[in-house]
What we know:
Layout: H1 2-16, E1 21-27, E2 43-48, E3 54-57, E4 59-60, E5 67-73, E6 77-84, E7 90-95, E8 101-102, H2 113-122, E9 140-146, E10 156-161, E11 164-165, E12 169-173, E13 179-181, E14 189-195, E15 198-205, E16 211-218, E17 223-229
Parallel strand pairs: 1-8, 7-17, 9-17
Antiparallel strand pairs: 1-5, 2-3, 2-6, 4-5, 6-7, 9-14, 10-11, 10-15, 12-13, 12-14, 15-16
Amino acid sequence: MILLALLACALLEEQRTPPTEALWSGWVLADLPAEDVPALESGTFEVFDLEGQPLAEAVEDAENPGYWSVELPVDTEVQLRIDGVEQVPTLWRTRSPQGRAYWLSGGLFAVHEDTQEALFDSLDGWQGMSPASLSDGEVAHLWGTPAEPQDWAGATVELEGVDGAVPVARLSLSEDGSLIDAGLGPVDLFVGPDLPPGPVLLRVTTADGRVAETRWRAQGGELLSAFTFSLPSP
Length: 234
């Protein structure tokens, strides 16, 4: 009886002790989420702290190619760098979970190089922009999409690199699917090209005074992901 009581106490103590590591896993896509986009079956998935120091490397499930798992310190701000044979290194910013967790299918992906090039090539000459090729490895680009486009109507979007402010294109989709200047209306996507390697700050201030910030530590050749960028509640 004493042994059983001791075992029960040990089990209870184990359950009460919060975990220090969290196993996080899910499917990673090989491009922007869309119908028939395959999973990323050949690539790398690395995790860094906010200073760019390595924390962990995700492992792909041998029996389920495209399904990745990584063990991280719980509730920690991290950067996820996902790359592939035909993808550009895509850098995400997030916070690790507080315990065993899964990200939604389509929640993480590496952008295909053709998709990235098509967008930034189309911006050549837009508001004086002339985006360099990420393949040169000299600069990074930022690409983001608002979680709630309507909330960005009239918002100020600021992007700062180590050399100062970087122009940001605020764009919306027209009825024919082409990109146009969002003006003071809703924003469907926003991009900031030619960021020098180093710290990057994105700050969004809404018309009603809400402020959201995210920071990355960029390397040359990376695409900084601000997809489904969220704002504080009103």
